[in-house]
Design brief:
- The complex is a heterodimer of chains A (294) and B (386).
- Chain A folds into two domains: 49 residues; 242 residues, MetI-like (MetI-like fold), CATH 1.10.3720.
- In chain A, 76% of the residues lie in helices and 1% in strands.
- Chain A is built from ten helices and two strands; from the N terminus they run ααββαααααααα.
- In chain A, a hairpin with a 4-residue loop joins strand 1 and strand 2.
- In chain A, helix 7 runs antiparallel to helix 8 and helix 9 runs antiparallel to helix 10.
- The longest helix of chain A is centred in the first third of the chain and has 46 residues.
- The radius of gyration of chain A is 25 Å and the shape is flat.
- Chain B is built from 15 helices and seven strands.
- In chain B, the strands form two sheets. A five-stranded mixed beta sheet of chain B has the order 2-5-1-4-3.
- In chain B, helix 9 packs antiparallel against helix 12 and helix 14 packs antiparallel against helix 15.
- The longest helix of chain B is centred in the last third of the chain and has 36 residues.
- Classes of the chains: A mainly alpha (294), B alpha/beta (386).
- At the A-B interface, helix 1, helix 3, helix 4, helix 5 and helix 6 of A face helix 1, helix 6, helix 7, helix 8 and helix 9 of B.
Chain lengths: 294, 386
């Protein structure tokens, strides 16, 4: 051979590359394996607890028997309440930031604040919700206080996805509409929003997934350990799935005996969140294709 | 316009409410209401910190020397001890002479420190009442002891909580960053699009699992595992929390780093390959240095998530407020403390305010983390335009 050194270098190069690529591949699949382990662990154990009675009955015998119906209902109330609050405001903010605000300090400031709000830890939302809604505004521990707190937490998610959805729309649509004599608001309402709608809905579903699993913000604003009755008004306390899972796995009257209930609750919670995520993904893919085709 | 500024208003409201409640803690003395501490009038000590008084009370400090006085040993007197100095006749059947007795006792015992209800320290009292130092922002963050409900003097020092939070979060990132970075490189540069389209949504799913489910998984699987592997008495340790937090921080690190890696200009990579570099050499000599700021942003964001995480840590770390020396000890973090104690703290009391002050610290930490991420990513955008 003419240049044995070159061959050696090339061999070493290939060996290093293969080593790196294979180990990176292993790590990546390892991380996915963690996900699968966690999911299958909970599905496997939770499946035993799952039954029709489990999701339609009240808890019995100090949370060791019966179902988790009130917690499911509570979570549904909270999710609905928080979205009723966060969705309109979030979408309006997103429209304002993307369509109306001029580039400059104010827009940058607003975006910075939105990002900051997204980074605030959920327990701080809980503290804030407690001091403003529960104590200052005297809502007490109630669905109203909990929904507003969760809504604030979801707000940055809704704003961001709305912004992204609007950004993805080609400017020529706006210019075309304005050229036909439509006003800015007519353009936004009739042209931009219908096109952005699918992605905005995706954001809504994603934030539903996020809100339904949050525990820290509802600890001090709404969640109840056990209630024998379903709530009657927005000023009542409710049980909620994530809080229910927390209490029966750490501080129940009989932790070992309520283990099965805990697995079941975790499974229901995960199913709820997974459905939201998968739905959002499917929608994104479905509408993504449709928009491209048009 | 109004809706656009809504988030800014909320952030300002959060700051206002948190800091208003939290600030109420400072400039107060954490002593049981209606009690005083007094010493002999010849004693040079005139002020004690809450931690010092607690140590005296618990018998951990036994000479005046360590408190800035002479070398006498300390004689602790509580009002219940009065019967071992005076007879019931001297005190009076309705304690009408109790004040006089305490006064006399304090006057004749030079090394005494007396702790008794304020009503007995009237104008005829001959001893010297001493002040407990007030809680300041500095004492709050620099004292180590956190006994918010201790009698007679509550201790509000959060250093161990701050260190616990940092320990757990940094350990989590040390474990998550290499794994996350490797995965980001794999997804951005190595994997073909079919593999990527399967892996990416699954990793995003990891971010969707609620933290309380992670906590539950950690409690049932990881905690017993650690207990068995290291032969510990309890498995709830900083390590368990770090592992769970690391897994939770992975999606953030992967997504942000992968985006950064993807932004490496094609021309740069192709130039490197054309010069004879292998794909792997191109990745670590071109792509990684180019996207270093993005990767840093991902890591910082991951730390921010880990610091603010509440439920998973609350369920897995054992929650004891000590400064940890190894990862195999239980620790307590700031968010876990708030979550565990706020339910029991009386509204408007010192404990309640101290928890809000903790919330302020948490808010400040995460605020600066967000700000630095913002700065890093805006600098990156600026660089691209050049």
């Amino acid at each position: 051979m003419k240049h044995p050194d070159h061959v050696k270098v090339r061999k070493k190069k290939t060996r290093n590359q293969n080593l790196a690529f294979v180990s990176f591949g292993i790590v990546s699949f390892g991380i996915v394996a963690i996900l699968i382990v966690i999911l299958s662990f909970i599905v496997f154990h939770g499946f035993k607890a799952l039954s029709w009675d489990f999701i339609t009955k009240m808890p019995e015998d100090g949370m060791t028997k019966g179902g988790i119906f009130p917690a499911i209902i509570g979570t549904l109330y909270l999710v609905t309440g928080s979205m009723l609050f966060a969705f309109p405001i979030g979408v309006m903010s997103g429209i304002y930031i993307n369509e109306y605000a001029k580039d400059g300090y104010i827009k940058r400031f607003i975006q910075m604040m939105t990002n900051n709000l997204a980074g605030v830890p959920s327990i701080v939302f809980g503290l804030f919700g407690m001091s403003l809604f529960v104590n200052k505004l005297k809502f007490g521990d109630s669905i109203l206080a909990g929904s507003l707190t969760l809504g604030l937490l979801a707000l940055p998610v809704v704003i961001r996805t709305t912004e992204e959805a609007l950004k993805a729309i080609d400017n020529s649509f706006r210019i075309g509409s304005l050229a036909l004599g439509a006003s800015k608001w007519q353009t936004t309402k009739r042209v931009v929003m219908p096109m952005a709608f699918p992605n905005v809905i995706t954001g809504l579903i994603l934030s539903i997934g996020r809100v339904s699993g949050e525990t820290a913000p509802i600890l001090f604003t709404v969640a109840a350990y056990f209630l024998p009755k379903l709530p009657h008004s927005i000023f009542d306390q409710v049980m909620a799935l994530p809080y229910h899972l927390y209490v029966i796995s750490t501080s129940g009257t009989n932790i070992e005996a309520s283990r099965g209930m805990a697995y079941g609750t975790a499974l229901v919670l995960i199913i709820l969140v997974l459905i939201a995520n998968l739905l959002a993904n499917a929608l994104r893919r479905y509408f993504g294709k449709k928009v491209k085709m048009n | 316009m109004v809706s656009g500024t809504f988030t800014s208003v909320i952030v300002l409201l959060i700051i206002l409410f948190l800091f208003k409640e939290g600030a109420g803690l400072f400039n107060q003395t954490p002593m049981e209401k209606g009690y005083v501490v007094a010493v002999n009038s010849s004693n040079p000590v005139s002020e004690l910190s809450p931690a010092q008084f607690k140590d005296v009370y618990d018998g951990k400090i036994i000479t005046w020397k360590s408190l800035g006085g002479n070398s006498d040993s300390i004689k602790l007197f509580r009002v219940d001890d009065i019967t071992s100095y005076y007879t019931e006749e001297q005190i009076g059947s309705n304690f009408e002479h109790l004040g006089e007795c305490i006064s006399k006792l304090v006057q004749k015992t030079p090394n005494i420190i007396a702790f008794f209800p304020k009503e007995y320290a009237d104008s005829s009292f001959k001893g010297k009442t001493i002040n407990l130092k007030k809680i300041t922002a500095w004492s709050f963050v620099s004292e180590k002891e956190w006994f918010p409900t201790a009698q007679p003097v509550a201790q509000f020092g959060v250093l161990s909580l701050i260190l616990g939070t940092l320990w757990v979060s940094l350990a989590a990132i040390l474990f998550a960053l290499p794994l996350g970075l490797a995965t980001a490189i794999y997804l951005a540069e190595i994997a073909d699009s079919r593999v990527r389209n399967i892996l990416k949504p699954l990793i995003e799913l990891l971010a969707g699992i609620p933290s309380v489910v992670y906590g539950f998984f950690g409690l049932i699987v990881i905690v017993p595992m650690i207990k068995n592997i290291f032969h510990l008495d309890v498995g709830e340790t900083a390590l368990a929390g770090s592992i769970i937090l690391g897994i939770m921080a992975l999606p953030t690190i992967i997504t942000v780093s992968e985006d950064a890696l993807r932004n490496t200009p094609r021309a740069m990579k192709e130039a490197s390959l054309a010069l004879g570099a292998s794909k792997w050499q191109t990745i670590y000599k071109v792509s990684i240095p180019y996207s270093a700021s993005g990767i840093t942003a991902g890591a910082i964001l991951g730390i921010g998530r880990a610091i603010g995480e509440t439920m998973a840590v609350l369920m897995c770390t054992g929650n004891s407020a000590i400064i940890p020396h190894t990862l195999l000890q239980p620790v307590r973090t700031i968010p876990a403390t708030i979550a565990a104690e706020l339910g029991e703290a009386a509204q408007g009391g010192m404990h309640y305010k101290a928890l809000f002050a903790l919330g302020c610290i948490l808010f400040i930490i995460t605020f600066f983390i967000n700000l630095s991420v913002e700065l890093i990513s805006s600098r990156r955008k600026g660089g691209k335009n050049e």
